[in-house]
Amino acid sequence: MLKRFFVVFTALCTFVAPMRADEGMLIPLLIKAFESDMQARGMKLTAEQIYSVNQASLKDAILQFGGGCTAELVSNQGLLLTNHHCGYSQIQSHSSLEHDYLKNGFWAQEKKEELANPGLTAMRIVRIEDVTALVLNNASGKNDQAVLNQNIVNLVKKAVEGTHYEAEVKAFDYGNAYYLMVKEVFKDIRFVGTPPNSIGKFGGDTDNWVWPRHTGDFSVFRIYVGKDNKPAPYSADNIPYTPIQYLNISFKERKEGDFTMVYGFPGVTEQHVVSEYLKFIMEQERPARIAMRDESLEAIGKGMKASDLVRIQYSAKQASIANAWKKWIGQVEGLKNLDGIAVKQSYETNYKSQAATKPEWKKYADALDSLNQWIKMNADKEFRYAMGVEYFAVGPEFFKLMKASNDLFNGDWEKSPDLFEAEKTKLMASARTFFKNYNAQVDQEIFAALTARYQKEKSAYIKNWNQVNVLELTKEIYASSMFTDSTRFLKFIQPYSLKNYKKVAKDPGYQFYQTFYPIFVQEVVPAFRQCQAKITALMQVYVEGKYAMFPQEKHWPDANSTLRITYGQLEGSTPVDGMAYTEHTTLDGMIAKNATGNPDFELLPRMLELAKSKNYGPYGQDGELWVCFTGSNHTTGGNSGSPVLDENGYLMGLNFDRSWESTMSDYLFDPNRCRNIVVDIRYVLWVMDIYAGAKHLVDEMTLMKE
Questions:
Q1: What is the pLDDT of residue 11?
Q2: Which pLDDT score, from 0 to 100, does residue 461 have?
Q3: Looking at 393-397, 529-533, 575-579, which range is the least confident one?
Q4: Range of the domain at 311
């Protein structure tokens, strides 16, 4: 059966005819199967130019940035472009009241001015290999985890032996297929430039996930390597990376209907979820998480408005929390408008009807019924987990310092005094970094609001949570806990010895955290994981049934942070009755938004001056300066920063968002509504050159007018 499924899966991957170009995230290794369709839509490239392991190809210019975004190489000196919001934590970390790069922007005029970013990486895929048969070799079934795990260990070891590469094997379609990813990880990534927030975050929360958009969502970094052009940790002696491939810049005029291709690392989609799970997401999980983030964002927003220091401290945090918050709001609305639950139920009815036509297919219908029943009976486990994540991981910040302190306070140091001192020094350094971006008043308001809301969620809170007196506890923690004040913390840690643990145990913040967080970890998390393991096993059979019973339908694996390709065209949309969206926006629209007085549309004087004079340099088109455009490419989180390429493989722009109506596409894709949002590369270069005076960066790039 395993061998038979592998053959079926391979055959399906090469079946081209029914694939819609505007849906699906394709594995680059299999792109040859889609070459003719892509060329019919206007592409002039060959599959070998897009993905190859025998010669340089476009894939070698695409990198995963920081583990959660995409970036692309645009010069022979290792210059990287990604989104402003992808580089935001680095921009924020280098900012201060004296050097407010968030407000004013930053541009290194020489390479020696480019700023180091400890811990930041950029990863290139060396090759992708279908290893399904090798992973399943000698296994008694697809869930023979011991054999599968050992096979994976052997494959990874063999793949990197004698090289500086790293590798991993990823499961696709819930373990119905496996692919080996061999990677080159660069470890010295330096900050080169950014526009001010008034460009990079233009529109703020008002425009986030919304079209029309006018956001210059880009930032600039550079890869540095050792003298051998291989990855190396940061060193002043490192040199700019010479890539084997970088992207040329599409400098020609655009028009609606142009071919577009997005090449990047999409994070997570869940296209296969069943109707009961979608109902749970829409009616319970998403609304509760949105409400939790409402509270955090209100406290952070108030603090940022009152203080420039708090604005700098919390800009990146606010953006991170708000991004998912607004996405979820649009997601629920979009799924309701599409009647998503009914769409799923209709598909499931057809699925079960098909399963009834052959005795060997009965297991597929049984898996579907079991999935819906299991989710309905066990949704509380996922809900408790989701709420715990919102509280303990996203909520009050002093929890992060508490976790960082855990090794020191709970380690067995009796026989290791030197290691104890080293751990203490490490914690003090971490604490200084933590308190640099911490405001106790903001955190206090978050703690009070989220603790109270968590308490109201009767189906979510952990045992004894209802006994918490939120008002009294909040006052005590923020008035006396060492974890909420830098002076108290450092004063205690510097002379700390093992004899002082009793004082730690009496700390009100420590007591609260150590009472409830272990319950979450030891009870809520294991229950969630057991529930997910059951769901994954059933999903494996359910998805196998899709391939087996509907061979003529489109099938593509869910996004899982691996390199993917999606293609479509530059086009607008008509998402709802009576509303038509054009395919691009211009600088004129940006100025019109600024005139409304909304603070999210604030611009610095230079932008207003340049717009008034229509100083577009060589970057305009037909008397306009394009800022953003939309395409019918299927994208998700992780595609942020992905290059949007034209028919020649030249860089048209940087993907950075989806429209409000598209946020549901992680679950259901509607080709009539779903659009990805792109900042035009010509606007990016205009900001560098005309606005910021950083033409030396533009001069590194290769501009293609034909």
A1: 39
A2: 66
A3: 575-579
A4: 275-540
Give how far Cα 32 sits from Cα of 13, 15, 180, 504, Å.
10, 11, 18, 61
Give the separation between CA 437 and CA 644, rounded to whole angstroms: 34
Q: How confident is the model at residue 406 (pLDDT cuts 50, 70, 90)?
A: confident
Q: 64 forms bridges with which residues in the sheet? A: 70, 123
Q: Indicate whether 201 and 286 sit together in one domain.
A: no
279 in the same domain as 258: no
The last residue of a domain, from among 540, 568, 593: 540
Write out the two tokens for 459: 């189906």
Of 443, 428, 504, which Cα lies nearest the Cα of 479? Answer: 443
List the alpha helices (DSSP H) in 307-397.
308-337, 340-355, 362-388
Q: What pLDDT band is residue 7 in, cutting at 50, 70 and 90? A: very low
State pLDDT tens for residues 46-97: 999 999 999 999 999 999 999 899 999 999 999 999 999 999 999 999 999 9
Residue whose tokens read 């989180």: 637
pTM: 0.89
Q: Which helix (H) or strand (E) holds 457?
A: none
Nearest CA among 503, 28, 445 for reference residue 13 = 28
- Please count the other Cβ atoms lying within 10 Å of the Cβ belonging to residue 89: 18
Domain assignment of residue 181, yes or no: no
Dihedral sign, Cα of residue 87, residue 189, residue 230, residue 688: positive
Confidence of residue 419 (pLDDT cuts 50, 70, 90): confident
User: Residues near 703 by Cβ (< 8 Å), separated by ≥ 6?
Assistant: 248, 249, 251
Asked if residue 58 and residue 115 are part of one domain, the reply reads yes
507 shares its domain with 582: no
Residue pair 659/575 in contact (Cβ under 8 Å)? The answer is: yes
Distances (CA, A) of 267 to 8, 124, 164, 564: 26, 16, 26, 10
Is residue 150 in a domain? Answer: no
- Cα 179 to its chain centre, rounded Å, is 21
Contact 194, 95 (CB under 8 A): no
Does residue 285 contact residue 69 with C-beta atoms inside 8 Å?
A: no
DSSP state string for 70-116: EEEE-STT-EEEE-TTTSHHHHHHT--SSS-HHHH-EE-SSGGGPBP
> Per mean pLDDT, which range of 157-171, 237-251, 423-437 is the poorest?
423-437
Bridge partners (DSSP) listed for residue 172: 177
110 with 243, same domain?
yes
Residue 60 lies in a domain: yes
Residue 221 has φ and ψ, to the nearest 5°, of -135, 175
Tell me the per-residue pLDDT of 308-348, one tens digit each, with 9 for 90 and over.
Answer: 999 999 998 998 999 899 999 999 999 999 999 999 999 99
| Residue 471 covered by a domain | yes
Rounded to an integer, what distance in angstroms lies between the CA atom of residue 508 and that of residue 514? Answer: 10
Same domain, 108 and 35: yes
Question: Do 211 and 233 fall into the same domain?
Answer: yes
* Pairing verdict, β 69-73 and 62-65: antiparallel
Residue 441 three-state SS: helix
Question: With bands split at pLDDT 50, 70 and 90, how would you rate the model's confidence at 15?
Answer: very low
Per-residue pLDDT tens for 349-391?
A: 999 999 999 999 999 999 999 999 999 999 999 999 999 999 9
The residues annotated as belonging to the active site are: 85, 217, 640
**Best CA proximity match to 243, nearest among 265, 226, 223, 218:** 223
- The DSSP secondary structure of 20-35, one letter per residue, reads -TTS--B-GGGGGGGH
CB neighbour class for 323 (10 Å; exposed up to 12, middle 13-18, buried from 19): middle
Segment 423-440 mean pLDDT: 93
User: Can you give the CATH number for the domain in which 103 is found?
Assistant: 2.40.10.120
Tally of domains in the chain: 2
pLDDT at 22: 63
Q: Are residues 530 and 581 in the same domain?
A: no
Segment 584-608 mean pLDDT: 96
Q: CA Rg, the chain, in Å?
A: 26
